[in-house]
Write a structure and sequence with these properties.
alpha/beta; two-stranded antiparallel sheet; 16 helices; 9 strands; about 10% strand
């Protein structure tokens, strides 16, 4: 298949302008491109099998060499280097802190390159006892390892670095579904509304508690907060408003009270029915499922940058006609609905996604996305 023509130098010059004002700039010559590939794409680009995912537990030397090789190819096809090539040595690493799922007794594990959260909570009584435990918990002592202070002091005194703040978490519905199971969680909302309300409040307080601890440890003020909540589609609008919405509102009110703060949610699922409630949260950025397109989002979220809505499956298959159709649709909607669109995939960029596919997206923006 012949390579599509793109003036690479001009494209990136115009794209820089396109990202101004959160992609709403009236001076933008074209729709913005948010797509920057990922390390999940490296092996497929060279025809290698996905045996040991680079982005999970990488061997630093091999990761550096592969990313450099990938970037050399990317420069020729899309005009820029896309992936990091400089990784800090092992001695720069901070000790692992416990995460919100572990606060509620869950266990994180890897299966086939994906992370899962498992839990032993099966009944309402078990949930109630766990909430009692969380209420009594010294959160700082629980999430920070015993050598935390010593290790942080060493890293700061020797390398001048502090631990990063916590700017985002797994969303509340995905968390609750992982801890209880989807069916049990939905039954809880109907059968034990008071316990569900307590569960919701405890999740919000725990997120804020962990983020405040890490904010103090990092010495940084949070620029906002992000949620990643694929399972929010499992609830109808009333259930979501009673359980999920109060959590996001409380966290955003604490860490993103000003208009310039980041308020972001990713949910690559069919959750269009929740848009009226999500619209009350004043998001500055969203990334939703491929069926939740710009025309459906914009009436509810007039000030949010919309990242999407290219189907990750279409992009992964390197389906040129499908990629062009998706990008053309999004570009036309960006022009119709007042800009604010940042073309990328509606969800993860997966193994199998190719650099030529990214060039196809760039061509489609040049063809259909000029303002």
């Amino acid at each position: 298949m012949a390579q599509l023509h793109v003036d690479l130098a001009q494209f990136w010059k115009d794209d820089k302008l396109a990202h101004e004002d959160n992609c709403f700039s009236v001076n933008a010559p074209q729709v913005a491109l948010g797509l920057r590939m990922s390390e999940e794409c490296v092996l497929a680009e060279f025809g290698e099998e996905l045996d040991n995912p680079l982005w999970m537990r990488p061997e630093r030397k091999r990761r550096t060499l592969l990313n450099k090789r990938y970037n050399d190819k990317a420069e020729k096809i899309v005009g820029i280097r896309l992936l990091p090539e400089d990784f800090p040595p092992d001695e720069y690493e901070f000790p692992e802190t416990k995460r919100i799922g572990e606060v509620f007794g869950g266990r994180y594990s890897l299966h086939d390159g994906s992370e899962w959260l498992d839990s032993d909570i099966k009944t309402y009584n078990q949930l109630e006892r766990k909430l009692d435990e969380v209420d009594r918990l010294n959160l700082r002592d629980f999430i920070l390892p015993v050598d935390w202070d010593v290790r942080c002091r060493f890293l700061y005194e020797n390398f001048g670095i502090k631990p990063p703040p916590l700017c985002g978490v797994r969303g509340p519905i995905t968390l609750a579904c992982s801890l209880l199971g989807v069916e049990n969680f939905i039954f809880l909302l109907y059968e034990e509304p008071e316990l569900a309300e307590r569960f919701s409040k405890t999740i919000a307080d725990t997120i804020i508690g962990i983020a405040e601890i890490m904010e103090e440890e990092s010495g940084a003020t949070l620029p906002g907060f992000e949620f990643y909540d694929d399972n929010c589609c499992m609830l109808n609008i009333d259930l979501y408003e009673s359980f999920g919405y109060p959590i996001l509102k409380k966290v955003f009110d604490r860490f993103a009270p000003e208009s310039h703060h980041t308020r972001f949610q990713h949910s690559d699922s069919a959750m269009e029915h929740l848009l009226p409630v999500l619209g009350k949260l004043n998001f500055t950025g969203v990334n939703f499922g491929p069926t939740v397109t710009v025309d459906k989002i914009r009436p509810h979220l007039p000030k949010a940058r919309i990242d999407g809505c290219l189907s990750p499956r279409t992009f992964m298959k390197d389906d040129r006609a499908g990629i062009i159709a998706d990008v053309k649709r999004d570009c036309e909607m960006a022009k119709q609905y007042g800009r604010g669109v940042n073309i990328t995939t509606a969800g993860s960029i997966n193994y199998g996604s190719m650099l030529e596919g990214m060039r196809t997206v760039m061509w489609a923006i040049c063809e259909y996305g000029r303002y």
